[in-house]
Structure to design on (372 residues):
């Protein structure tokens, strides 16, 4: 027995009175409107990502509010992509044979995104496509957008994981560690039940904690592991981006590599339904493949320099002003003279009209981009 396994066995055998209790419910009824914790966490994550991503893009020379404009493309694409990945990789949950354990026939359930089930790989892929379309429309370098959003996205993922906690789902293997998640029986309306009703410990999101309380078991809180890991990845990306002034797409690649490195081992702890290949969960293989792709990109692009801040401003579709080529060869925003009522844009435009001052502002703001 290794020293590590001995220490782990000792910690697991020490009796502790408290673990992490699961919430009694994941849905609150406010009149006819159900407030779902999962949806609230996803929305909160999107808002935080948009606000922080906007600050980071402005620090790189971008137009204030550009990330909000891009969110019109990114968020719908990301939600659709996340749900598609979940349904495609677990089709038996919605299009299976009900007589087979673990399968179900519920085609309409494939659209019930409020019950959980978003695959991050699909969300990033289609969300990235939405960002690319928006970047083309607004004339903003795609790499600058990805880098600005990188730590904000992984922080949003951490916030979203709280939704799994309220839904009492996606936990890991049984454990007696002091930080174990206490999983309780949930029933329709909280009616009485027994331990025999616990099953896997995952229940429909509308069900609530049974009365009297029935403890189904204690499990690894994989949602918590991923929250802590994701926050660490966000801090790593912020530090590396400020320390090395990462070039186009490299901050995003670092986020992807960092996230997948953690997702791989956390995925192996989970015991919820998943398809397997060679005895391993499908998402473990996806994590390894995406991790390798991100590392290769970081190596291949190690000589790339960060984009000129003057190129990140972009354009506002439908406005008569467009970007113009300045005397110094850099691109700066061209706001028409009769557009004096736009205080925010003209204030920044004054800096960017001069290529040298635009670059200076970008360098100064980079140092302050991730405060707060």
């Amino acid at each position: 027995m290794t020293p590590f396994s001995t220490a782990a066995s000792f910690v697991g055998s020490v009796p502790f009175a408290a673990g992490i209790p699961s919430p009694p419910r994941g849905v609150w009824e406010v009149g006819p409107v159900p407030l779902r914790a999962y949806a609230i966490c996803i929305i909160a994550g999107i808002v935080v990502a948009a606000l922080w991503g906007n600050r980071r893009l402005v620090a790189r020379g971008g137009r204030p509010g550009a990330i909000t404009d891009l969110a019109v493309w990114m968020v719908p694409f990301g939600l659709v992509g996340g749900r598609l990945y979940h349904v495609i990789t677990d089709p038996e949950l919605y299009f299976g044979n009900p007589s087979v354990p673990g399968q179900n026939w519920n085609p309409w359930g494939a659209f019930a995104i409020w019950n959980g089930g978003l695959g991050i790989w699909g969300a990033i892929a289609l969300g990235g496509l939405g960002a690319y379309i928006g970047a083309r429309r607004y004339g903003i370098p795609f790499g600058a957008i990805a880098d600005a959003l990188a730590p904000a996205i992984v922080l949003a993922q951490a916030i979203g994981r709280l939704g799994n906690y309220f839904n009492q789902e996606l936990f890991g293997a049984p454990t007696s560690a002091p930080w174990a998640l206490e999983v309780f029986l949930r029933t329709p309306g909280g009616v009485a039940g027994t331990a025999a009703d616990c099953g896997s410990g995952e229940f429909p999101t509308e069900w609530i904690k049974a009365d009297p309380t029935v403890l189904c078991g204690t499990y690894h809180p994989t949602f918590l592991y991923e929250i802590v890991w994701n926050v660490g990845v966000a801090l790593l990306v912020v530090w590396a981006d400020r320390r090395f002034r990462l070039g186009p797409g490299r901050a995003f690649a670092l986020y992807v590599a960092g996230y997948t490195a953690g997702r791989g081992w956390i995925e192996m702890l989970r015991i919820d339904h998943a398809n397997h290949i060679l005895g391993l969960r499908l998402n473990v293989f996806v994590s390894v493949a995406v991790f390798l792709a991100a590392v290769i990109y970081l190596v291949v692009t190690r000589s790339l320099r960060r984009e000129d801040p003057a190129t990140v401003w972009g354009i506002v579709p439908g406005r008569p002003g467009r970007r113009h080529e300045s005397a110094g060869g850099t691109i700066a925003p061209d706001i028409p003279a009769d557009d004096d009522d736009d205080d925010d844009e003209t204030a920044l435009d004054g800096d960017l009209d001069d290529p040298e001052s635009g670059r200076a502002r970008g360098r100064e703001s980079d140092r302050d981009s991730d405060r707060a």
